[in-house]
Write a structure and sequence with these properties.
Distance between the termini: 86 Å
Radius of gyration: 23 Å
CATH architecture of the largest domain: 2-Layer Sandwich
Number of strands: 5
Structural class: alpha+beta
Number of domains: 2
Strand content: 15-25%
CATH topology of the largest domain: Nonspecific Lipid-transfer Protein, Chain A
Largest sheet: 5 strands, mixed
CATH class of the largest domain: Alpha Beta
Oligomer: single chain
């Protein structure tokens, strides 16, 4: 039979193990997680939705085919999440990473609130188009050629707006 002293030590050890296990489950997510991780994880599945619907977005191929995009999203806490996006000749996303990519051709800017609205919309593609049209998502070409390409696309969208 265990002595009283050994039982107390065993109880203390088990209590310490339980507390450590509980803290290990909560503390890393509360302290160590990067604020952008949650948003990045929420956006990732939308890449497939975008790729499946890219043909429904007017003028997107004009600017987003064979593009290297650094997208800067200002989070609600003031920090910034940067996404690196690479597209193919059909403007479909072939690479989507957290962090900047080298030699971007386009820089895009938005906010966490805008991204959340798109993610929670019943029609994310329409919400994405609305965000582009309203300026909630801004973008610019990097370098003269890409700036001209983006400028032509913006002008085309502006003209198209008169007919819709």
């Amino acid at each position: 039979m265990l002595s009283l002293k050994r039982m107390k030590l065993l109880s203390a050890f088990l209590a310490l193990c339980m507390v450590s296990t509980i803290l290990a489950g909560f503390v890393p997510s509360a302290i160590a997680q990067d604020p952008g991780d949650t948003l990045f994880t929420a956006i990732e599945p939308m890449v497939a939705v975008y790729n499946a619907n890219v043909d429904k977005i007017p003028f997107i191929k004009t600017v987003a085919s064979n593009a290297r995009i650094n997208a800067e999203i200002t989070l609600n806490d003031g920090s910034v999440l940067i996404l690196g996006i690479v597209t193919d000749s059909d403007a479909k996303v072939v690479s989507f990473v957290k962090g900047e990519i080298a030699d971007p051709t386009i820089r895009a800017y938005s906010t966490e609130a805008t991204v959340d609205a798109i993610l929670s919309a019943s029609n994310p593609i329409a919400a994405f188009q609305d965000a582009l049209e309203s300026g909630a998502i801004r973008y610019e070409g990097v370098g003269l050629g890409n700036s001209l390409k983006v400028g032509v696309m913006k002008a085309g969208m502006w003209v198209l707006g008169f007919f819709t």
